[in-house]
Amino acid sequence: MAPGYAIVTPAGELDIATAPQLRECLLAFLPARPALVVDLNQVSFCDATGLGVLAGAANRARASGTSLHLVCSRTDIRRLFELTGLTRRLPLARTLDEVQAAALTLAQAAPARNSRAARPGHRQAHRHPSGTTTGQGPSPAPGPALAPSRGDRHDRPA
Q1: pTM over 0.85, yes/no
Q2: In the predicted model, what is the mean pLDDT of residues 77-94?
């Protein structure tokens, strides 16, 4: 994983009452980090609003040239992503190690993708080359629901 990534760990229920707090938190981190990891292992329930927040954050991450990664080993939450088809848009890793391995694979493939010349009639993806943003400089200030714990890991109640 590129230096400067952040981990956000929502806990409890991710629903219509708590989703706006998560949205605000994710949007604060997206433009300032090369990668954002959302660890869903402490989420006990997620409704359509919570899924929408995660899908919207993934769309915004893609548009801004950063990446959003989800981690969850909970069978019930993983099943929700599979049933809704979101696993096609939001890859769901079981562990942080899986996310790091996937990020390394993408970083190694990025030079090959970025060196291809644009062909007429084909859209060329503009992606943030992994590793060029180091995360140095000021971090976005955590909102009231965020409490930094270890390094760049941010745990917050959902």
Answers
A1: no
A2: 93
